[in-house]
Amino acid sequence: MNATDSETLVVGGGIAGCAAALEAARAGGDVVLATKAARPEETNSYWAQGGIAVTRSDPETFRADIIEAGAGACDPDAVETLVSEARPAVEDILIETLDVPFDTDGDEFDYGREAAHSESRILHVDAATGAAILPRFLAYLDEETDVTVREETTALDLVTHEGRVHGALLEQDGAVSVHFAGGTVLATGGIGAAYDRTTNPDSATGDGIAMGALAGADVADMEYVQFHPTALDTALVGSDGDRDGDESDDTGTFLLSEAVRGEGGVLRNGDGERFMPEIHPDGSLAPRDVVAGAVASERERTGAVRLDVSEVAFDASFPGLAKRCRERGVDPEDGIPVAPAEHFCCGGLAADMDGRTSLGRLFAAGECARTGVHGANRLASTSLLEGLVVGRRAGRQAVGVEPEAVEVSEPRDSDPDLPARFASEKADRLRRTMTEYVGLERTSDGLARAATSIRRLKGEVDAYTRTRTSRELYELRNATVTALLVVRAATENDESRGCHHRSDTEVQYAD
Ligand SMILES: Cc1cc2nc3c(=O)[nH]c(=O)nc-3n(C[C@H](O)[C@H](O)[C@H](O)COP(=O)(O)OP(=O)(O)OC[C@H]3O[C@@H](n4cnc5c(N)ncnc54)[C@H](O)[C@@H]3O)c2cc1C
Asked: Ligand 1 pocket check: which of 122, 384, 469, 471 to mutate, most ligand atoms within 8 Å of Cβ?
């Protein structure tokens, strides 16, 4: 069997994976970074708009804002580490190493402010911060370090032996091989592909969470799926086709950052009325879960919700968004139709702030990890930060152990005969089910229906994975496994808190 090895294997080329690979290489490790993406656009990190939050004068207010947004479910020690390492990590990697051109105002950085932040503390590059960071980061790893970056290389499963992880099965160009590693870092991003409307690219199929869970790692907080209130309402502008992140073929939804509301954008219902001031004292800048719920119900009641940008210098401040709106036939002056969309998974593989999971030699960082910093609801602009801080720390831990070649059953090469429509039909069914029953509002009946339907679907997918190997099939398996983890956690937790709403119970978190 074909086998390769390295001291450290990082799976994922978003901000968390890049930070882990950089730091592992700096610590002297021999590092391979495998990413299934062909382009930076196939990551959540690339699409980050608002920016990355850092500590300013008083770390206590930053800590308090994160904990308040997390609705009492954050781990205070994890938050403490995130806040105290925010500025050093950003200065070291983003400013000194990558020279990211954050916007300035005179000699100072131009710190932005988003919902539920009590001060302006967000570093940004226009409203396209991820696009300014990620291509630079990947290029730096490739050109300036000894990290081996393997693009279009998909991890299919982890290699385990006696409770430890020893690397992963990797697929590249249809060939499957084993990669043994002393330390394996999963940094595979989000789960948005399990929902009809998401801000994530199609490839966000929860691979790391599923692979880790199937290998026996603990997961936590999976019921806390954050829906962003303002994604383009594709139902009102035409097709909601693919979301592969290719702007030239852009028919899917996209995010209209909170920063637009921070600059004065307001939400109006189909009757032209502002509805947020009656619902929350912060109006359109209320916490995300509150705004998302209100947008969903006003959209249902009045047929549409629009983001009114008449008081915003929209073209000047958000040129990329203005361009994308016009490309989709939306004149921002008329108000931009918006609807909630799956945006971020607060849960994931249970990990400490060094990325350590419950399995030996397995680390997790970024959106696929649950470190406790986000609790039941993530504060805006803290996930790039979490990826950077935890990725950096995990990279340091994942070195120093030689790879061991353990026994692995012979992997099958990719099967080109997979019925072309099989994976896409099943993925459609999964998305419909998750959107209908496991969205903003959940009930025990709806969750039970979702569990039955997704279990049946998983059975059909498993029957195929026993005999065939293909990236699409494994992504589908991973999306169904991850969806079942969300359904199970949402069923077991009858308390509405943060971004988990159970409309059939009275149990409500109150701080
Ligand atoms: C539209 C949008 C706007 C956002 N805005 C902000 C913001 O302003 N500020 C902020 O802090 N956060 C923001 N977020 C959230 C933030 O971008 C993400 O949570 C964060 O970037 C996740 O980083 P990551 O490295 O964990 O994952 P990602 O950036 O998604 O990277 C995952 C990587 O793993 C690879 N991968 C996945 N599965 C496999 C596999 N099986 N084998 C090999 N490779 C695999 C992918 O190809 C990709 O390279 C936004 C998210 C979106 C979608």
From this structure: 384
